[in-house]
Amino acid sequence: MTHDQNGPVSGERRALSRRSVLTTIGAVPVITATSAVLGATEASAATATVNPSAQRQTIKGFGGMTHAAWAGDLTATQRDTAFQTGEGKLGFSILRIPVGESQADFGRDLATAKRAVELGVTVFASPWNPPASMIETFNRSGQTNAKRLRYDQYAAYATHLNSFSTYMKNNGVNLYAISVQNEPDYAHDWTWWTSTEMVKFLRENAGSINTRVMAPESFQYVKSMSDPILNDATALANTDIIGAHLYGTSYSNFPYPLFKQKGAGKELWMTEVYYPNSTDSADTWPQALDVGEHMHRAMVEAEFQAYVWWYIRRSYGPMREDGQLSKRGAIMAQFARFVRPGYVRIDATANPATNVYVSAYRSGDTVVIVAINKNTSAVSQQFSVAGAGSAGVSSWVTDGSRNVAPQAATTMSNGSLTVTLPARSMTTYVTSLSGSSPSATPTVTPTVTPSQSPSQSPSQSPSQSPTGGTGAARVAYTMNSWSNGFTASISITNTGSSTINGWTLAFTLPSGQTITSGWNATYSPSSGQVSARNVDYNGTLAPGATVDIGFQASHTGNTSKPTSFTLNGVPCTVV
């Protein structure tokens, strides 16, 4: 993307032609989006059936973009608002950053990326232009200064992408993926690629790139850009993620049958959008509910695994310029805070009544139901969760006067839950299949490039829940498990009076558990008696300071937690 009309920021969006395109092809105005409504009295919807056994796509997360050169960097406080999951936070688990055109630009977004990684966030990067020395101009349909990558520079360009990935890794950020090109099919202000050129690069050069490869990031999810990749076995083998943008894309074009046919083992991400426009304030209500419907359809109809906004902080974005959540941001948080990476979308009645939209997600015994009511009156909605018993239900609501506001607890009885969806609202419900109390805010953290040693030690005996100990550090260990795996988030707090310079957290994984990847620490070995050692950017722990680390692991049925922890050989208090 380029310029917008929200301030004189150098290098930002300025292409009015794009705004005209969006207006023409269907950026839906709020009047149209809310024209079909129910009457003034509460109505009843058909039962929404949720089937936890019918699993669909695995969710990678929800997030947004920072581009310090165009819109300024986030402040330290804004980074925490964006990527933490508590009250008043967005809960974003994905960060997109630009690839610098030269090595002098590589560090522009590093500070935000490092903090994101510290909080367990997945970071990926997209380039707008190769280095100037690799570009040539040509005449493209009358655009005489159109840019493209020189054909003799494809290998050099792959090296450039590797250089950026290596720079970020050396500075504490292991990129999850790197894209070949941002919007190669709408590149009036950056570098054009044809689908033929994209396939050629993927076939011949992408195999040398040292992280996951994403392509093609089409402006409008134009299938003629991605079909050739899916239809070319070699190009597809060198591509890990099919990325797409949804500017003006009609809902009828959200499904992608060819990807379902040929994309086995690949990921499908929506990597950029603002919706429904960039001209209105993000606090305009009920227009912000349009974002909720858009996200719902992206998850249910397109079956995307990720949903990524354009600028995180902007007048039309999820975070206002003052650093507070906007209404659009609150709507995004209804997904992002509770549907965490590793959750799996499960079948649910998607549209049980006019202007009512339902989707559901599962992680182990936890089930999250997200319900949107765009009607002007309340709706009585029953949910029937197959195979569930009776359990407590926590919920949060956003409407005209509330932002992700926690509601009084209720109960699901024998798999049945009946609620009132307030007029023009979005509500997230969290419950448990097993009858245990649901987590107030699920904290599953995304998979990051593994850093632990593959060696293993003999398995230890199963263990019960953590018990307290004494010492100058406090540890909180949170698990979110599913059928054969789990993620663990570990918070280490220095409760002593002296700064800790360099730390190793030791604990014993229960039998059958094996670490497959981790973040913010180096793990060795991958099972048994594990040591998690600090990395270069988080080795200093001042008194009262906390560092968050974590890992993803497999299990063979045992989901017990470690019983005790030591930090630098000293027993920790476990909470």
From TrEMBL:
Biological processes annotated in GO: carbohydrate metabolic process; sphingolipid metabolic process
Q: Where is the composition biased (Low complexity)?
A: 434-467
Return one GO MF term: polysaccharide binding
- The CBM2 domain covers which part of the protein? 466-575
rRNA processing as a keyword of this entry, yes or no, is no
Q: Which UniProt keywords apply?
A: Hydrolase, Signal
Q: Does the keyword Lipid metabolism apply?
A: no
* Sequence segments annotated as region (Disordered): 430-472
SUPFAM superfamilies linked: (Trans)glycosidases, Carbohydrate-binding domain, Glycosyl hydrolase domain
Query: SMART domains in the record, alphabetically?
Result: CBD_II
One GO CC annotation, please?
membrane
**InterPro entries tied to this protein:** CBD2, CBM2/CBM3_carb-bd_dom_sf, CBM2_carb-bd_dom_sf, GH, GH30_C, Glyco_hydro_30, Glyco_hydro_b, TAT_signal
Q: Which family does it belong to?
A: Belongs to the glycosyl hydrolase 30 family.
What is the official name of this protein in its record?
Cellulose-binding protein
